[in-house]
């Protein structure tokens, strides 16, 4: 006997086949007041000189036919060209921002510089607030955004069909309206915040940079391990590892005072003191702040290693730190989990695969929760302003590192017309928040 089944239509996205269902365009669909969706991108070697890429968007629903949880393709660019292009982008930022010189007696506004404007001065490095030089910085930022977009284009360019689909997914996702948390997993560390989407599609060139649009980190591919717990504490434990010659630069004294008032602070001025602390199995520090110079030293005919110095002549680099903590790696009886603000020039740069790890890379390998550092030479006055703003928010315990990093980029762009916050890169720790209940 034939029966009529009762049917209730719960969802009808095509409105009775009279319209096209909404198509996913790469924009996260998480609620505006919820956590941002997470984009994970992985670059890895396949064969001798071939790069493959994987990407997935988590925390957002992909609707429509043919949706894929993972997107993958073989890149057309070689690792060597990618690293050369990254070095070129850093050099452009160094030359056009940090080393931008005043070559005549006319200011960016077209008037006689008169008092206070020295011929040969590094105009964009001598102050944090560049609002009065916006006629100079705004066109410069537009050029930097074009260069950042060019590097992203080189990364994703190629005629392969699968690469074209991968490029379509990634670019539409990066161009989305809502901020993402983006983790790039790769042996090859690029200056990700300086990369940009197409500036022509943005309301202003500032908004094209990945570091302005999203929270961005270079993720670690290693396995985490359990560290010795510290127990609940009333105050964070911090250290200030500094070169005393920089004590009177910018807001350096205020940074010292901030750490002194809001944490249990240890101050180190000698490299031997730092190495002695690193030699102990348990390092009771939530935050390690470095305020010193960073420079490269030659380690062979064609290789260099990044090293820092405090107030003495002791060179602190990745290999010496690794040697001091070699016996504690992966031990549950040891602890080394600070978040590190490495405020020294070039200290976010990573060594190429197969080379000696730079200091920031080694700190991550030894267990640090994250390292935030500049990709290029950074003006000292700006570095103190950045450190004060970051530490003030981080020590409150209310914000993640990813949230603070993006806020700082937007803050310096909006309030000071200064792009240098984009020069700071985060190696791990995008979701890290100060936790005193370890």
Give a summary of the structure in a few sentences.
The chain has 438 residues and is α/β, with parallel strands linked by helices.
Written account of the structure:
With 438 residues, the chain is an alpha/beta fold. It folds into 2 domains: 79-219, no CATH class; 236-427, Rossmann fold (3-Layer(aba) Sandwich). 29% of the residues lie in helices and 18% in strands. It has helices at 79-98, 134-156, 161-174, 210-213, 252-262, 271-278, 318-325, 359-365, 380-394, 401-416, and strands at residues 38-46, 50-58, 71-74, 181-186, 215-219, 236-242, 263-268, 287-291, 293-298, 304-309, 316-317, 339-343, 370-374, 424-427. Helix 9 (380-394) packs across helix 10 (401-416).
Summarize the biggest pleated sheet: 6 strands, mixed
CATH architecture of the largest domain: 3-Layer(aba) Sandwich
Beta percentage is 15-25%
Please give the alpha-carbon distance between the first and last residues. Answer: 68 Å
Write down the CATH class of the largest domain: Alpha Beta
The overall average pLDDT, rounded, is 86
Index terms:
10 helices, 2 domains, 438 residues, globular, 14 strands, alpha/beta, Rossmann fold, 6-stranded mixed sheet
Topology:
Layout: E1 38-46, E2 50-58, E3 71-74, H1 79-98, H2 134-156, H3 161-174, E4 181-186, H4 210-213, E5 215-219, E6 236-242, H5 252-262, E7 263-268, H6 271-278, E8 287-291, E9 293-298, E10 304-309, E11 316-317, H7 318-325, E12 339-343, H8 359-365, E13 370-374, H9 380-394, H10 401-416, E14 424-427
Parallel strand pairs: 1-4, 4-5, 6-7, 6-8, 8-12, 12-13
Antiparallel strand pairs: 1-2, 2-3, 9-10, 10-11, 13-14
Helix pairs in contact: 1-2, 5-9, 7-8, 9-10
């Amino acid at each position: 006997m034939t029966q009529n089944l009762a049917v209730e239509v719960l969802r009808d996205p095509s409105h009775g086949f009279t319209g096209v269902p909404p198509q996913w365009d790469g924009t996260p669909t998480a609620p505006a007041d919820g956590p941002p969706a997470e984009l994970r991108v992985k670059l890895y070697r396949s064969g001798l000189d071939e790069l493959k890429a994987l990407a997935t968007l988590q925390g957002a629903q992909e609707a429509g036919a043919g949706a894929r949880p993972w997107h993958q393709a073989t890149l057309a660019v070689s690792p060597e060209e990618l690293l050369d292009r990254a070095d070129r982008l850093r050099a452009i930022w160094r030359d056009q921002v940090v080393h931008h010189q005043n070559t005549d007696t006319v200011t960016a506004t077209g008037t006689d510089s008169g008092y206070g404007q020295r011929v040969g001065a590094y105009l964009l490095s001598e102050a944090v607030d560049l609002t009065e030089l916006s006629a100079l910085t705004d066109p410069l930022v537009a050029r930097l955004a074009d260069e950042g977009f060019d590097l992203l284009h080189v990364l994703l360019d190629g005629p392969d069909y699968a690469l074209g689909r991968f490029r379509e997914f990634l670019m539409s996702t990066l161009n989305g309206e809502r901020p993402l948390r983006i983790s790039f997993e790769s042996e090859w560390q690029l200056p990700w915040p300086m990369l940009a989407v197409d500036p022509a599609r943005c309301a202003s060139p500032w908004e094209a940079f990945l570091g302005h649009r999203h929270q961005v980190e270079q993720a670690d591919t290693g396995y985490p391990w359990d560290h010795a717990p510290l127990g609940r504490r009333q105050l964070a434990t911090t250290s200030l590892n500094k070169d005393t010659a920089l004590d009177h630069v910018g807001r350096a004294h205020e940074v010292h005072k901030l750490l002194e008032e809001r944490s249990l602070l240890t101050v180190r001025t000698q490299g031997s003191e730092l190495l002695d602390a690193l030699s102990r199995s348990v390092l009771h520090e939530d935050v390690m702040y470095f305020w010193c110079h960073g420079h490269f030293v030659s380690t062979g005919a064609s290789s260099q290693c990044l090293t820092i110095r405090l107030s003495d002549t002791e060179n602190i680099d990745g290999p010496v730190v690794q040697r001091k903590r070699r016996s504690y790696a992966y031990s549950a009886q040891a602890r080394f989990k600070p978040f590190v603000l490495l405020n020294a020039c070039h200290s976010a740069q990573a060594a190429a695969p197969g080379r000696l790890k730079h200091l920031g890379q080694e700190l991550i390998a030894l267990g640090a929760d994250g390292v935030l550092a500049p990709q290029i030479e950074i003006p000292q006055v700006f570095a103190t302003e950045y450190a004060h703003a970051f530490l003030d928010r981080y020590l409150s315990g209310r914000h993640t590192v990813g949230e603070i990093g993006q806020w700082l980029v937007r803050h310096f762009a909006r309030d000071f017309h200064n792009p240098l916050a984009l020069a700071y890169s985060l190696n791990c720790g995008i979701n890290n928040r100060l936790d005193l209940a370890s």
